[in-house]
# Entry
Amino acid sequence: MEEKILICEDSLEGIFTAVYQVYAWKLDKDHVVFQIGEEGNLRLFAEYITVAPEVEKAEKVISTIIRKMGEEVYWDICCMLASRDPEKGQAVFRTIVTALKTGQGREVLSNVKEPYIQKAFELARNVNCEVHHLYGFLRFAELENGMLYAKIGPKNNVVTLLAPHFADRFPLENFVIHDVVRRIFVLHPAKKGCIVVTGREYDAFQLPGESEEEMYFQALFVEFCHTIAIKERENLTLQRNMLPLRFQEFMVEMGKK
Amino acid sequence: MEYKICEDKTIEEKLTILTDAAKYDVACTSSGVERSNGKAGMGNAVKAGICHSFSSDGRCISLLKILFTNECIYDCKYCLNRRSNDIVRASFTPDEVCTLTMEFYRRNYIEGLFLSSGILYNPTFTMELIYQTVYKLRTVHHFYGYIHVKAIPGAAPEVIQKTGFLVDRMSINLELPTAEGLNRLAPNKSRKTILAPMRQIQNGIAQNKNELVLYRNAPQFVSGGQSSQLIVGATAENDFQIMSVAEGLYQKFDLKRVFYSAYVQVNQDKDLPALPGGPPLLREHRLYQADFLMRYYGFRAGELLSEERPNFNVFLDPKADWAVRHLEQFPVEINRADYKMLLRVPGIGVKSARRIIQARKRTRLGFEELKKIGVVLKRALYFITCEGKMMYRTKLEEDYIVRNLTYVKEKLPFEVGSVRYEQLNLFDMASDPSIHYKQISQIDTKVLYG
# Structure
């Protein structure tokens, strides 16, 4: 049977819309392949269908996932979709299909014999790990207008996964998290919800300089980090294992000593 | 309450002095409390805990760990801040601690505050200063992040009580495993003054749990539980004594955690050991491994060590060491064994044991699946079967397994120093396969610690 290749946008909406279409069009799920974005090599004997993201359809899929698999699996699926792995679309699609077909619901990720679910599990674990790292390693600096500003350069597209944690932690602060790799700002105005800024708005976005006090507190913290170490136990390898270099470049205390 | 402090130091100087004085305390965890915010003030708490940085010794920085003051009326021989040491003294004011905490927290440098203190004037006075600081943080600055404070032994119970309602964790350091060691090295402290507030906090937590059942909005008392710390290697206690004390603290005082701190030689004193090989890091590591076995793996101290074998094996981690001495309980069939037994297999941790139980509900597991689940097969393979088959042809024999397990280099968080390596070479197992494991395990651990 001819394979159908669904080309979807690299976003939550894009992939969930494609999932919706598979069911709406009653496609044979074993012969559907999810592909994110255009690919160089076209395959013979395969039909390519481009699916444009539609928020309404995506939301229907989201509510089904939450109802049938629970909030936790939904969070894991969001993590999978934030991964930089190009096969994430197919992994998520197979996971959802299996969960719905078998009625395994929230236990679907413990299927160790299904390779795509294994893959999905790996992706979720990997992204979750980066999110948890950044909960700790992200550094805010205070700007002249009192706003807090953090720069990150994550492997995966985690900035929207990070924002809810910081919004809960700093409800009264205006803060911005900036993914310099993907060129995304997430803004949190005090007491309000988060806003994602990309594309042309991103280019137009301007930030003031750092506040006068900022240098002072950075210096205090750097001093704290140096003093807290026990000389007799110095272990730079362990430090680097626990705090990978790719995070260090964004952290005040890891700069010049 | 007013007290005299030398106002001639800047906040930077104080931070340096009082961080330096606090660094030997180990507990820097922020786990165990889940508190959402989302509306007011600043801060929340995350159950898993969050590490914000790692210092050059590889230890996690999670909390702003400082002393309120390094003035001290006591003269504990192992402590840098002992009265008789001629060092620079400094004290914070509650407002300074609040500013540092809030500004560091806002920038996501820290998960909260860990406030300890030397004894200024007397224990109650000191505890009152700690109370005032956390009271300000919670009520004036509306700080809802994690707070861990030391309860000062000998302080009035009322002050400890009211502090407990403001903080997430309280701890009292037991310092030394035996009363005798304590008398010798910390002549101003006694077992009784340490254990009394520990009991008070334990009872406070238990009573608070009942109140919370009745009134959901009752204020919480030390909701993250209490912890303690033992110094390892400053006195002559063996590992078995230390583990037994820790077990006692878990069982009789419901402690959340016991921390072990390899003694670092900060003072010269005739009652203190010389440690030419540096702090006993491997020993500390083994104690933490065993501590995890007691808290999460259902082991008792008496299973891991005994009067006859009072110290941990330096070559094998405590779990592997237990397994090779209990081969009659192996091999374990992965598709049938209960959770408790799975946990006892070297190479299977809490997460992989749970995943095995989940996964085998709908399929028979083989070695390929175990690998995906995260089981460390090169350690587990001697102890398990899948569908009745072992992974390779192996012998269920103590010497054989020990030899193979020690070939697989154990992942230690530090390097074993070169001096100590040479001593190990005396018993080089690779070149002499006839050497017996039993002999090795009898080598006094002191050899390794210099």
Observations:
- The mean pLDDT of chain A is 92.
